[in-house]
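Many introductory courses stop at the sequence. We go one step further.
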Amino acid sequence: MWKSFIALLLLAPLMPAADAQAQKRIQQVTSTPGFVALWDFVQRDAEGRFTAHQPRGATADFHLDAINYVHDYWQQGRPATYADFPLLGRGPFGQAIQIRQETDPDFRPCLILPRERLHDTALDVKGPGRSVSMLVWLIRESGAHALAGIWHEGTDLGNGVARVERGKRQYALFAGLAANTGAAAVHVSENGRNSFGDRYARNLAVTPEVLPAVPSDAPAQVLDQSWQLAGFTFDNRRNEVTAYLNGKATEYWIENPQKHPFFQWPARGWQQAQLHRQSGLQEGEDPAFPADQYYEPPESKPLRREVEQSTATRRQELQTFRYTKVRVISERAGQGPWSVAKRELVALKANPFWFGHDLYNPRTKEDGGPFTIGRVIHTSKSVGFTGYIGGVAVFGRALTPKQIQRLAGIASPGPIAARD
């Protein structure tokens, strides 16, 4: 690391100040342990396509293609080209692409790294023991959907799709979804498909803070002050997914999750697990609920206990665990032993979120999805996220909070103008 930094200092007098500043920022990313790839939308291959910085010696072909997924899967609309991703002319590393508010319902462009070029590379983080982190430098105009990741949602849920494929999800960053519109949100999947008995994937951590909505045609000085950093870590050893916004991972509890538009699904998985533990078929138990979709974060020892009601034969406590808050009702006959009569989920932690699985592990290229930026392939033709993306970085490990804080400071001096 020090040799690279000294070399950068020696080269600095020979390059424009903007180039030296950009190289210093790139070095901060690429020298971070676990670094896999950085798309800065400045580096291009010999054919002019965006490609990624990689660790020294890495030779994977990570150039990005432009596609219109509606054209590819519905056979409607026109193909996309690089011209459909206007350049801002400046960004955290010297450039940024715009994801526009497209008005044609048959045109939803995204940048894609096809599966055949990423399968089994360092970017293809999957399977036993593997952890991953990702960062996206962005300005959000609108929308709550995908920013970047390996998250092919599948086209097998109808809507007249001509090319039908099952879901092939691994990990991705979103702008909040229904969990918290405009927030930084991380989706992970253990099976590539659905979770908790729903038709969609529902394992997700999300920040309570949201990204500011900034018009894409705002004055230059406003855009220059609006860069944000959304990020996440999945720590396989801790079974924990954490969403970050501008270097912060604020704790976030969802009260009464059974009524939340998103977290009702892990809440249902928790309830079904509780009912299944009891002998016989319980009221409200779904015998068809898949056992591998129970939501069972560790609840062996409460961090806090609060007695809410107590009599000689009945006691009600609020017990707080790392990922859940549970109301426990215990009863006893006379002076006999206490036994748990009922457990109710009061709150569920959305950041960090417990995920007791490995990431989906596609064995073949056909079983895995592509890495996309700006949008993901899915059954909907909704516009999704709009705004600017000025950098996407992936790491094959769970970064520490200190490392993410350091990377969050990269763009604080302001954007860098594009170099000719």
